[in-house]
């Protein structure tokens, strides 16, 4: 994943300010464009760390939260036929999908820290994060999809392809 100049140019002071700003309630802000950059930076860093993790550790053995089993069983109960290998935007963003995702996500309020924070999710799990392969999702959506991908062997491609290059 290439570094994004606008995000990496904030430096240590910017990162510290971002961390503080992101801990404040949403009501403390209007539509502050600096906040959008800070959120983008945080989401980008999370995506980069996660991709590096599944590139270097067999994803089947990863535990992303203390409640992976609960997330996975509820996810597969709710989304039996969802193809996590290759998501489509409508799988998360259509009105019908939102009606199903909302109660799924809300059950993890108080269970998964920052369950509704924004994060980046790859649509096709065999590819890296890119503009065409990334969608904005909540943190619990990210966990649900990635736990399923890890347990069902879909992230193995990333792990084995990175190991083959080493």
> What order do the SSEs take from the amino end to the carboxyl end, as H and E?
HHHHHHEEHH
Q: Kindly estimate the percentage of residues that lie in beta strands according to DSSP.
A: 5-15%
Distance between the termini: 17 Å
Shape, please? globular
Strand line-up in the sheet with most strands: 1-2
Computed over alpha carbons, the radius of gyration is 16 Å
Low-confidence stretches: 1-12
Helix content: 40-55%
The SS-based structural class is: mainly alpha
Alpha plus pi helix count: 8
Q: What does this molecule look like?
A:
With 166 residues, the chain is mainly alpha-helical. Helix content is 55%, strand content 6%. The chain has eight helices and two strands; from the N terminus they run H-H-H-H-H-H-E-E-H-H. It has helices spanning 5-8, 11-23, 33-56, 68-78, 90-93, 95-106, 139-151, 156-165, and strands at residues 118-122, 134-138. It has a two-stranded antiparallel ribbon with strand order 1-2. Helix 2 crosses helix 3 (33-56). The protein is globular, with a radius of gyration of 16 Å. The chain starts with a helix and ends with a helix. Residues 1-12 have low confidence and may be disordered.
List keywords for this structure.
166 residues, mainly alpha, two-stranded antiparallel sheet, globular, disordered N terminus
């Amino acid at each position: 994943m290439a570094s994004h100049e606008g995000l990496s140019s904030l430096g240590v002071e910017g990162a510290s300010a971002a961390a503080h700003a992101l801990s404040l309630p949403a009501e403390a802000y209007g539509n502050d464009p600096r906040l959008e950059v800070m959120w983008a930076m945080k989401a980008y860093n999370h995506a980069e760390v996660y991709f590096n993790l599944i590139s270097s550790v067999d994803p089947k053995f990863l535990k992303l939260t203390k409640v992976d089993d609960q997330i996975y069983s509820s996810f597969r109960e709710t989304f039996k036929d969802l193809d996590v290998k290759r998501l489509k935007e409508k799988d998360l963003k259509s009105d019908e999908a939102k009606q199903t995702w909302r109660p799924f996500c809300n059950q993890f309020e108080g269970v998964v820290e920052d369950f509704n924070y924004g994060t980046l999710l790859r649509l096709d799990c065999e590819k890296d994060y890119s503009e065409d392969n990334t969608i904005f999702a909540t943190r619990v959506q990210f966990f649900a999809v990635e736990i399923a991908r890890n347990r069902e062997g879909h992230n193995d491609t990333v792990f084995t392809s990175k190991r083959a290059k080493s």
